[in-house]
Design a protein that fits this description.
The chain has about 375 residues and is α/β, with parallel strands linked by helices. About 40% of the residues lie in helices and about 15% in strands.
Length: about 375
């Protein structure tokens, strides 16, 4: 089986000394290595304020609470479930905007149409690591006095006009699960501009307790453990090399599939850099010859894993069934025609050629 994704990890021996230190000290969570990881992550991203937590979902939930948002928040439906679930958990109303059919990111024009007197924030996703239209989004936010949160779960290492995407908005959050380009096994990170929010976020990840048993904030249990922090510290040291390898794989995919009618790719602005958390293709059945779903089945028969991110989109899921109906034609089309191909930073190039060979055979049969 060619897997859809696998974590690209640092060498085990690079972690051993720190691991021994953990066993010796008995400090397993939210201690010195978490603090070191926060410092190194901030340095890598070129930001000042980072707070490590247990997951990307916890990161987003805490951001929403700490910003004290109320009312409605505009977000894409073409994103991971946490986008809506965190809002609902915090008593906020998700309002879905449509996406750009080429970038797969939230469409600024659709955002503006969704703004009401109840709107308090925009939650924009850098889909698959592709930077959003940051300048346009923040212009809209300023005009209507809205907070901007970026779901950068896929985008650790992505840049907008040569600057880390984490330098924009009131807050950004990232996920470090094993399918991500950079992983800490489980974990997440919050990046905020306002340093005054850091204290609140740190209270929030520890149930609101500043270790005096007199809770000051309505928080949750969201501490990062020291094992994850060590994995992150050592992983950062090899991330640049891993990204270079990943880009070679992406370029090989594009070279192999570029001239196949009915197969198209997510469009990345030449001024931006995407880490490509996923390599996705859009399948036009009329031009290619078979549907996305049938191609997916045929690849699986040949032991090649694929996935339909994000299908169904959020506005079609049960957790959002009580929300007002959304007319999102681009989201509906993209989600029903898209598929992610196998991709991880240490993936052998022969796997890419094997995957593309199967796709080419079905196109040739048209």
């Amino acid at each position: 089986m060619i897997p859809l994704a696998r974590p690209t990890l640092p060498k085990l021996n690079s972690m051993q000394k720190k691991m021994q230190d953990i066993f010796k000290s008995g400090m397993l969570t939210n201690a010195k290595y978490v603090a070191e990881f926060e410092k190194e992550a901030a340095k890598f991203l070129g930001v000042k304020n980072t707070v490590a937590v247990s997951s990307g979902t916890a990161a987003l939930t805490l951001v929403l609470k700490c910003l004290q948002l109320k009312g409605e928040v505009i977000l894409p439906s073409f994103t991971f479930t946490s986008g809506a679930s965190a809002l609902l958990w915090c008593g906020l109303t998700p309002v879905f905007a449509d996406i750009d059919p080429e970038t797969f990111n939230i469409d600024p024009n659709s955002i503006e149409k969704k703004i009401t007197k109840k709107t308090s924030a925009i939650l924009a996703t850098h889909v698959f690591g592709n930077p959003c239209e940051v300048k346009k989004i923040e212009k809209i936010a300023k005009k209507h006095n809205l907070k901007v949160i970026y779901d950068a779960a896929h985008a650790f290492g992505s840049t907008y006009k040569n600057k880390s995407v984490f330098n924009y908005g009131d807050a950004s959050m990232v996920s470090f699960t094993p399918t991500k380009v950079f992983t800490t096994a489980e974990g997440g990170l919050v990046v905020v501009k306002d340093k005054n929010l850091v204290k609140t976020l740190k209270l929030g990840r520890n149930n609101g307790d500043s270790f005096n048993r007199n809770e000051e904030f309505l928080g949750i249990t969201a501490r990062m453990n020291e094992f994850s922090a060590i994995l992150g510290i050592e992983g950062l040291k090899v991330l640049k090399k891993n990204l270079e390898r990943r880009m070679r794989i992406i370029n090989l995919y594009k070279k192999e599939l570029n001239n196949i009618s009915g197969i198209s790719f997510q469009q990345i602005s030449p001024k931006n850099f995407s880490v490509y958390k996923d390599f996705t293709i859009l399948v036009n059945e009329k031009k290619f010859g078979i549907s996305r779903d049938n191609l997916l089945k045929e690849l699986l028969k040949r032991k090649i894993q694929t996935k339909t991110y994000f299908y169904p989109p959020l506005h079609q899921k049960k957790i959002c069934s009580k929300l007002p109906k959304s007319f999102l034609p681009n989201t509906n089309y993209i989600s029903s025609h898209i598929m992610s191909l196998p991709l991880y930073s240490h993936m052998p190039e022969k796997y890419v050629k094997q995957v593309c060979s199967v796709i080419k055979k079905f196109y040739a049969k048209k």
